[in-house]
Write a structure and sequence with these properties.
The chain is α/β, with parallel strands linked by helices and 172 residues long. It has six helices and nine strands; from the N terminus they run H-E-E-E-H-E-H-E-E-H-E-H-E-H-E. Strand 1 (44-45) and strand 2 (48-49) form a beta hairpin.
Length: 172
């Protein structure tokens, strides 16, 4: 775990710098920062409805014990996915880039529109993530009705790995 955190910390710095660049206009996918991410009086969290968010503990329970498991897609960087990802999840391309959204659309073209889908990134704090909102908007725009976004407040290492939820490593 310590090795993961050490390497992940350096990766977070690089991803954070990329995110700042993207949000400054690098790809045209800048989104307003959520100022009160899980505030009880907020119906929308950074353009994703609060009802469409799932907490890490809830997703972990669902994946371990749920009768129907959702399709779980990582919409961040390939490096982050390879380093550690949710067991059973698939890499779907970086949602903040046109090429990533094209990969996501290709992956989802034959999936039933009512399929339960959970997307996540975890590259950086929720309010700064350049990937999750664009991926969510793309899926909703394609007509998917069961899309949820994993609410990762800080980053994947802090909010999933350090909490002891199951991870897999490698490209698959």
């Amino acid at each position: 775990m310590r090795e993961f955190r050490k390497g992940f910390g350096s990766f977070r710095i690089v991803v954070g710098m990329i995110a700042v660049s993207v949000m400054a206009g690098g790809s045209g996918h800048a989104f307003p920062r959520a100022t009160t991410p899980m505030a009880s009086d907020s119906a929308v969290v950074g353009e994703i409805p609060k009802a469409a968010l799932v907490e890490p503990a809830e997703l972990s329970r669902l994946l371990a014990n749920g009768p129907e498991k959702p399709l779980v897609l990582q919409v961040g960087s390939r490096v982050l996915f390879t380093e550690a990802h949710i067991v059973g999840s698939e890499y779907a391309g970086p949602g903040g880039q046109g090429s990533g959204l094209a990969l996501l659309r290709t992956r989802m073209k034959d999936v039933k529109r009512n399929q339960a889908v959970v997307i996540y990134c975890g590259c950086c704090p929720w309010g700064k993530c350049p990937n999750i909102r664009a991926a969510y908007a793309a899926l909703v725009g394609m007509g998917f009705t069961g899309v949820k976004a994993l609410y990762i407040e800080e980053d994947f290492g802090t909010d999933w790995v350090e909490k002891g939820y199951p991870v897999a490593k490698g490209a698959k």
